[in-house]
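Co-fold these.
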Amino acid sequence: MVAAVAMIAYVAQVDADQGLSQKIFYFHVPIALTAYACFGWGAWKALLHLWKRRDGADLESYVAIHQGVIFGAMTLVTGSIWAKISWGHWWVWGSDQLVLFLVLFLFYAAYCMLRFSVEPGPRRANLSAVYVLFGVALIPVSFMAIRLANDLIHPTVFTTDGPQMSGRMFATFCVSWAAMLLLAGTLYQVELAGKRLDSRLRELRELLA
Amino acid sequence: MTAPEKYVAAAYLVVFGVVLAYVLIISLKLVRLEREVEELTELARRRQARTEPTREATPVG
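Predicted complex below.
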């Protein structure tokens, strides 16, 4: 993370068109891609739960989705700040990319509420897994919306001709993305370990009671 | 500080703040779990002491 911040400050050039505000790109886009990765990982674990009935897959799915919601919230906030300086508005309802990401975020935020409204057990695990798998269809739609909509508001940086930026900018972006994935992975492991420990302690308390 | 600098700093502070808040919540949870482990250990010790048969010293030989 320190290397990413150093590269953003000293290695990546200041964008000729947007100026200094473009530096938000190096955090905003990796955070958004990490949120997609978390939702995708959560869906994979949900599939494993339904398909193989693997122990712990339900909890892993929940933790991944929870991480995705946190990263999704950060995407929306950093995106809004960038939008304010670049477009003069905190939010543009006309941009399909923004609205679809908001829908995806709200869908998974609702997942957390749905999960805690059902009693813990196999029913909750199955219901949660099915809900997560329904939401996974929104990920490619949200990701591709920027290309399908062609609204000219949200710039397309990665095209079929490759990244539309200099080598130094691309290297900085890659380091930032790797740092963000590493951060998400670490937080995922820490939260998962905490939840497992919590559940084992509850079990132990019931045995000792 | 210019306007773009303020916005860039705000965006980075949001990310830093969220990560910091997350770490704080996790650390508070770890403190709670540690306390629970201590309580359960104490409970297990008391239970063991209660169930263990009291032995009286008997002369050998």
